Amino acid sequence: MDNRIIKIAEEYGHRPQLQMLIEEMAELTKAICKFIRVDDRAKREPVQVAECTEVIENIIEEMADVQIMILQLQHFINLSDESFKEQMNKKLDRQIERINLKKDRPLTQNELEKMFEAKGM
Description:
Elements: H1 3-12, H2 14-42, H3 49-76, H4 81-102, H5 109-118
Helix pairs in contact: 1-3, 2-3
């Protein structure tokens, strides 16, 4: 983990930084909502390139803020990069499995077994 993340996290402490994470997530949510509004409007009428650029730059800035705060949270709960990546991979694999299962086709025996195993059956 970047030592700057650790220094910032330890300087301010977990409680203020968790509150800041919530605030940064709200700002990202607002930026995404604005993107959706501009995208919807662009389907009906021309939108200035400068406005689109500004909206996208704002999303990128807010994503960086949220990621920095998430890394601080990761530090506070002593979560290793490897454990975090492992959890992400499990979630990604599960979603890909769901996508594959949505297709109109019979399930293989292996897919059925995995599905039941995942549900603890």
